[in-house]
Amino acid sequence: MSGVITQNVDMLHLKAGSRRIVDLHGTYGVVTCLGCGHRRSRWALHDDLDALNPGFAERVASRGAIEVAPDADAVLADTADFRMVDCPECGGVLKPDIVYFGENVPAARVAAAHELVDASDVVVVIGSSLTVRSGYRFVRRAVSTGKQVAVINRGRTRAHDEADLAIDGDCVDVLRLTDAAL
Ligand SMILES: [Zn+2]
Question: Which whole number is the average pLDDT over 10-17?
């Protein structure tokens, strides 16, 4: 196992112990400035937000549940009294350093993923339909450079016709059958 290229933004690969990871769509662990591109830790921002909004988390919790969306966004019913922190460098607006629908994956990240594919013998697609081109292009890269491709996914994927091996099944169930140290 030489590395992981993931479209997830939840940092679970890191938490699970994988070390060489290309977070294609970024992670919620970093925020970036829309003005100057300055990046900083989400946890450092959290401390600043906490200091600026004493008791906010408790007040929101007491008003009702906080709904957390799959993209790690939180849906709050009432944020009227919330004070936002701006970029410490230029005062610009901060956003999670995540590639949202319609945005492009930064070129350096694509290059890092290509490097990982190029250094591998086999690319295994796990639990993705590859509908989004940002992930599918690495299958194309592998095929065009003579690598083998295996797919583990429930249902058909965009890479099925190119794959040397395609297993239709739940990736958790299938991976439990292997000794692969993922
Ligand atoms: Zn800035």
Answer: 91
